[in-house]
Amino acid sequence: MQDKNFDKLAQKFAKNIYGTPKGDIRAAVLWRDLAPALAKLGDRKLRVLDAGGGFGYFSQKLARLGHEVVLCDISAEMLAQAQEQIDASPEPLAIQLIHAPIQALSVEHHGYFDIILCHAVVEWLTDAKPTMAGLLTMLKPAGLFSLMFYNKEAMRFHALVSGNFDYVAADLKVKKKVRLTPTHPLYIQEVKEWFSDWQMSLISQSGVRVIHDYLKKSQPADFDYQKLLQMELEYSQREPYISLGRYVHFLGQSPAV
Predict the structure, then answer these.
(1) Cα atoms in the Cβ-side hemisphere of radius 13 Å centred on 74
(2) Can you give the residue ranges of the Methyltransferase type domain (predicted)?
């Protein structure tokens, strides 16, 4: 089992991902991609698997829309945060929490799903492709697969424009790893080939943080983060900006029977 366990970093991880401008961008781009695809599945209750979903930002969002969600994570601390937020919700949320590595999930125990989310997980796995293939055995025909992964080429470009040439020359390897820097970033073409191998149609692709991570450290006094968010949404589905996204979001659909 190769999942990265964020138990010791749960508070830092949650703080770094959401409740910040980069978290707002991530949430906005993903939801912009997901919302129209969900609408095409019809006005009905859907079964959702949030694989490696941490404290379940999208689990909670989808449950509030009336869907039935299974949230799985290897981190007990992350799931404890999820439970606190679920308990604090003014409305009941149909979310089942499973404390396990995502490789342990199976059709036999958990059934089939209309949607599978796997966001910022594969870049921590040494067995990423077979693990994702295992998840897809639980996806219904014409189901949606939302995969967000850390983009290795953007990682390289960010290092180049920051002047970290030794790091680039070392193929982005350092002796001491930063704890929140993914260990197995992926190339876009590599993941496209996965989707092709799985006979899954790619219905949308977006860069996540195509501008934010390249901003100059010093910004004008009147810098407007809402305008930044607007620009992120505007350029996130255009090349060359998709390929510059710190993360890339692929939304695929499985073949209909």
Answers:
(1) 15
(2) 49-146
Q: What is the dihedral of CA 1, 151, 205, 229, to 10 degrees?
A: 120
53 assigned to a ligand binding site: yes
Rounded (5°) CA angle 226-206-101: 105
Is 66 annotated as belonging to a binding site?
A: no
Note the pLDDT tens digit of each residue in 22-32: 999 999 999 99
State the Cα–Cα distance between residues 79 and 71, nearest whole angstrom. 8
Q: What is the pTM of this model?
A: 0.92
Structure confidence at residue 5 (pLDDT) = 56
Residue 239 CB contacts under 8 Å (≥ 6 apart), including other chains: none
Confirm whether residue 119 is marked as ligand binding.
Answer: yes
Q: Return the residue matching tokens 């191998």.
A: 197
